[in-house]
Protein: CBU-0592-like domain-containing protein
Organism: Sphingomonas natans
Amino acid sequence: MNPMLADAIGLVGSALMVVAYAYSNMAKSVDFLLFNLLNLVGSLLLIASLLVHFNLASMLLEIVWSIIALLGLAKVWMTRAKA
């Protein structure tokens, strides 16, 4: 992947995660499907960027972030399936 494209992808991923964080702190009621999707997509985009600009600490953080977002999505889907 082109390093400039990797940077752009990483910036979009970072922006999505900042939007998710701001949303969770400013919304009167949090839609956890939206919150976790933003975090998952953001972390996956950052992982893609880190494949070009590798940093172990950042890669591990994004992998854990993705796992947490996936667990959050599973919880949302299980809750909605029961309703």
